[in-house]
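Q: What structure does this chain adopt?
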Amino acid sequence: MDTANLTREETAARSAAVVVNSIRVELDLTAAADPGTTGFPTVTTIDFASSSRETWLDFIGESVNRVTVNGVEQTPRHDGARIALQGLASRNVVVVEAVGAYSRSGEGLHRFVDPADGETYLYTQYEPADSRRVMACFEQPDIKAPYTFVVHAPAGWEVLSNQAVVGRESTDERQRVEFAPTLPISSYITAVAAGPYARVEGEWSREDQRIALGVFARRSLAPYLESEEILDVTRQGLDFFTEAFAYPYPWGKYDQIFLPEYNLGAMENPGLVTFTEAYLSRGAATDAQRAARANTILHEMAHMWFGDLVTMRWWDDLWLKESFADYMGAHASAAATRFTDAWVKFAANRKAWAYQQDQLPTTHPIVADIPDLEAAKLNFDGITYAKGAAVLKQLVAFVGEDAFFEGARRYFAAHAFGNTTLDDLLAQLSAVSGRDMSDWSQAWLETTGMSTLALEEAADGTVELVQTDPRPHRLRIGLYGREGNRIVRQQQVSLDIAAPRTLVDLDPAELVILNDDDLTYAKARLDERSLRTVEASLSAVEDPLARALLWSSLWNSTRDGELDASRYLAVARAHAPSESNIGLLTGVIANAAYAVRHFVRDERRAQEQRAWTETAWAALQSADAGSDAQLSWARALAGASAYDDLHSADLREILDGAAPEGLTVDPDLRWQLLTALATTGHATVEDIEAEAARDATGSGRTAARRALASRPDADVRRAAWDVAWDDLTLSNDHLDAEIAGFRAGGRRDLISAFDAAYFARIGAVWSSRSIELARRLVIGLFPATDSLALVDTWLAENETAPAALRRIVIEQRDHLARELRVRGAQR
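A:
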């Protein structure tokens, strides 16, 4: 057995035998700036009761040097993942002295050196089970305890953790910082950050509660921090959730820090929320990007209650925090901030992630069966997040918003600082709504798949609403018609359905939208008359949520092979340039580009690519100067130009300063344009090196690596392949850059020779690399073959491969099979 891969059964047995009173962690990070130092001393002191004479602690690091149990030193018994403890009493104090390893994968304690100024930055990232890379611990969510962190760091650094500083001792060269004990929390949401971070302070107050706010980023990104807007959203969110949940924010302070080479979007560590730097734009950002950042801020804030205050017992109930936080991110954005259209983007884009995940052969219920940590790592997916949030939106429509929030309030009051399962939540919702929630839970939380809704007209003129995979839905049907040059809703019909067929009485309409207002979770098809109306007049539909549902329906039909990809692209070319909602526009641009590259038949791809490139160029020229649409179309043109060099000379002119009036060509856009030129052979190594000198930052360094690997030369692609698999010094971001360069421009002629080698290598890389880096390799380098033969052979010959690895390969196979099937079905 791989002892790093903890199972549900063994952790349940451990938590039944162990009750932790307190944990104290002391970290020595004073040598972090020395590149020759690979590890850091870590000392963990755990005070716990035990009903068993033996148990184990989890730790992954360079070495375990000393273990004492109740003052008696034991020979360390460490297998690389677990420290065996023996001779335990009913009350114990265990001290583990060890050396942890600085990370380059974003797991554990990550170390980043900023090339802009040479400064070193550290931060932790643990979910689901990487706190054991920093401290000895009980690595499972249902063993909660107060944590006290003590950190030794270079003088002048910011040192942060979940709680406020209670003691600091400093010399000219170093400092010792002690933090107040936390309230009881799980190990995976503890956090430490250290480095010369820039700090912006604020405060939030409500009645007699005053919370110190902090926003942090590395110094070279401080000019792009947009701290005022971040703090505004934070205050709005704290106002909203404190009122909605009737439970005061419990964690003492609220720091938010933006981090380099960060694997996730963000993480809900109480008192120290961590975010990817991708939420900071180095010059130009659309309102959709700011809305996404606000949504994530509020998503993580919801976790202060859903996940941190009340935590799932095991990862089966991951949805108890992620589905709720995803729902609350959109709900609070719409209710409490200027981003009132949050549900529009959710309908068109976020739910698309859920629909895609739910159609894979590896789909799972929202309440999933998670036997071990490897399975947990892969279940941070579109089911747990977006489908769960969509189902909660359906639940709110079912029980009412007041009952939903009252159930949440009772849930927090009953289980604060504890651990729960599905039944604990359903009990509260049933009590306040007066409804038995078991049938709803069975239909929506404990089953897989989704319904597809469509209208069918019989010969006698009657109309039935047909649903595949029947479930109970509360939904609305919108009937839309033309008023002048607008298409508006003229009538709406509300109904509950559960049967495969439901007779409906609808007046004739130019456009019928099933699931109008997006109350339920289902794919809704357009009837042929509605489809013709959409093709002619989509951009005339007045309501942005209605347009979101129409774009979503078109995309789902294209993915399912029911709508020809060229027909979808014709709609995108006709109406995307007129799309006024920037969140919808960015999603349509991404989907159109994907359709060209994956769903169009080979013999038509060049033609469709040229048409899309021309659309992006024309839309860029016609967009209002300085608008979000202008920036979005510039990015779309850069993406298209990696596949079609029609406008290579125009891209070069933009780089040389002849940009359309109002367009901000910031460093990130410059790299997109230059990488497109490199991919099509219109930029040289010297061009890339000159741009790297111009942008001597961490982002610039990563972008340069990608651009160099993107050049259309077989030897260059071979080098990128070798580096991705074999260079163990690559950081997570640099690995992504090599993978992206290898695949750039869809140049199968340059990389198809590696198809068989991919399947020969994935087993070894899974066993030798961290799951984060191995997952990037297995997904990123999966070959886009013209048949399923290679992947099917691997699956047949590797039935005993790790379940998590097989799941990834099965999912990639399904994506490929869908592409082949959709292309093959086209006329």
